[in-house]
Amino acid sequence: MALARLPFTLSLAWAAYTSATPPNPPPRPAELRVELDYSLKEVNLRAALARASLVLPALIEIIIVLSDLSSISPQPQRSNHLQVPEPLTNPHTASSHIYLTPSFLAFWTIAMTGAHLRKRCFTTMGAMFTFELAVRRDHKLITRGPYAVVRHPAYTTAVVVMGAGALCWSGPGAWPFAYAFDFERVSGDGSGTGTAAAAALLAWIALAACWVPTVWNAVALPGRARVEDKLLHEKFGKEWEVWAERVPCRFIPGIY
């Protein structure tokens, strides 16, 4: 049922927003390690797209459900039986295509776990965690917590949150999936075909908005991690080498 899904939708939006929001102000210009101005713009753009890609579909879903609820007419008769509002069960209303599924709950759990671990990365790094590539004046090499497992856990968790979130919106029970892949059932008897077609276009845009930033980050972050390793090696020397020997994997323990 659509109402039962809303708490999960809200928490998924929270996970995406907090994961893609910088925990600290930008570093001072002297601390930045970028060669071209567009690199900073790219970082900010990827973060903004990451937030919007999962937050906007959640807001649209909430609007769909609340709009259908607002169309419920008062029921004068009293009943001892629990009744589900008709707009949420009518097969030709938008809310009837929004419901919980085992796959959604599985991907939601992965996204929330990723968000929690990413927040731990923020906390562990403290003031040194910035979205911009920088080496602080008083920078310290962090090797505890998540950084004792892999060298770049925040990058891994960012892709996990975005990928799992995108999968949440790409399966049955999600409005983008219903309008993008189940157009005939959503449009019903054809009387609302024009509206359904517009909704289908919006659904495809929403799906693209979910997956484009996810793929972009998955492709861009390994290159950034290599540059970051090089900078840290230059600054900390032997200390970094000892850490890299103890923690050889950048993203996935024992694999990569």
UniProtKB/TrEMBL annotation:
EC supergroup of this enzyme: transferase
Transmembrane segments: 48-69, 154-175, 195-216
One GO biological process term: methylation
Cellular localization per UniProt: Endoplasmic reticulum membrane; Membrane
Signal peptide: 1-20
Main location: endoplasmic reticulum
Protein's UniProt keywords contain Nuclease: no
Bilayer topology term: Multi-pass membrane protein
GO MF: protein C-terminal S-isoprenylcysteine carboxyl O-methyltransferase activity
Enzyme Commission code(s) on record: 2.1.1.100
Family: Belongs to the class VI-like SAM-binding methyltransferase superfamily. Isoprenylcysteine carboxyl methyltransferase family.
Protein name, entry field: Protein-S-isoprenylcysteine O-methyltransferase
Species per Swiss-Prot/TrEMBL record: Psilocybe cubensis (Psychedelic mushroom)
